Amino acid sequence: MRKFFGATFFLLLIVAGCNNKSKPDSQSKDKKEIVTHPFDADSAFFYVKAQTDFGPRVPASEAHAACAAFLSTKMAQFCDTVIVQPFIAKTYDGNRFNSQNIIGSFAPEKEKRILLAAHWDSRHIADMDPDLEKRKLPIDGANDGASGVGVLIELARQLQLKNPEIGVDIIFFDAEDYGTPSGENIAGDWWCLGSQHWSRNPHRENYQADYGILLDMVGASYATFYHEGYSVFYASQVLSSVWGIANRLGYGNHFLNKRANPITDDHYYVNMITKVPMINIIHQDNESNTGFFPPWHTHNDNISVIDKNTLQAVGKVLLEVIYDEK
Ligand code: AHN
Ligand code: ZN
Q: Residue 169 phi/psi, 5° resolution?
């Protein structure tokens, strides 16, 4: 019995060894190894914080000017070309603000290209803040504004380390968030002034891109990104493909396959005015009063709401989308 056991055990070892050698991955039948591209969420977080450290980036403020200089310097460091597009934002309250869209490009000569964007200004008022006294004060906009820009700066850093096959344009739109205060109705298109300007005056003549992806509020913990209404209407194929990649990478907890309300955001004007179909990756939340992440347009939208895991998920998805394109 003892002898028999010993022999059997020895045999099993050999079989196990052979088995291992011939099939290096025991799950290779059902599971394909996914090789992804590096994205450093610590670095993305650093770029988010660098923006909020200037203070609220409201048009005409010192923080706004300082942040613009920071952003164009960073893009010049990582991209092949940078174009700063100045314009005058005419706001609902009669102001005329010197504003600027900042556009960093990789391989600007390539015909096949995609457009990535986020707004870099922060809201001038905290009109959703529970504290009525503080509603007139501008917000940090760590998530609403800085998160998308932070992800895109880190993305630019990665694209410089490993150039993609296609061209990429990264646009930081100004004056997105100077829309009318909640509850006030003033006829006109007062949101998204930077994207409206760029869409009517692209940074290059006859500008074209295959498609675009807008990031808005991509940094909060457990962010939920739905099939936002205008993205479905104007760019359903882009949306399916991006959500498909996100789900394959294991980010189905963030990228949900469910419809949500259309949002008047920068992608709306890009879709309406240019021929670039553009989606919006935006944190929507049916449980919250506003439909957005709960601290939206309050002073709680500060650096403390930023979660590196979410920045990582969005960054990884974007890199996969970009390097997939040939
Ligand atoms: C409206 O509430 C109409 N649009 C929201 C666009 C936005 C503001 N995204 C971030 N802040
Ligand atoms: Zn906002």
A: -115, 130
- ∠ CA 58-54-150, nearest 5°, is 90
User: What is the pLDDT averaged over residues 224-250?
Assistant: 98
Q: Give domain 7-323's CATH number out of 3.40.50.800, 3.40.50.2000, 3.40.630.10, 3.40.1280.10.
A: 3.40.630.10
Q: What is the pTM of this model?
A: 0.91
The helix or strand, by DSSP H or E, that contains position 114, with its residue range, turns out to be strand 113-119
pLDDT band of 10, cuts 50, 70, 90: very low
Q: Quick check: CB of 140 below 6 Å from ligand 1?
A: no
Helix (H, G, I), strand (E, B), or coil: what is residue 127? coil
Residue 191 amino acid letter: W
Q: Alpha-carbon distance 250 to 314, whole Å?
A: 12
Cα–Cα dist 20/37, whole Å: 28
Query: What is the C-alpha separation between 175 and 196, in angstroms, rounded?
Result: 10
Bridge pairing between strands 96-106 and 81-90? antiparallel
219 neighbors 147 (Cβ within 8 angstroms): yes
Q: Which ligand is nearest to the CA of 291?
A: 1
Question: Which stretches of the chain are DSSP H helices?
Answer: 2-22, 41-52, 62-78, 148-161, 193-200, 229-248, 266-273, 308-324
CA dist., res. 129 & res. 296, Å (int): 8
CA of 259 to the centre of ligand 2 (A): 21
Which residues contact residue 108 at a Cβ distance below 8 angstroms, ignoring those fewer than 6 apart?
Answer: 80, 81, 167, 169, 204
Helix 62-78 vs helix 41-52: crossing angle, to nearest 10: 150
Q: Which atom of ligand 1 is nearest to the CA of 282?
A: 9
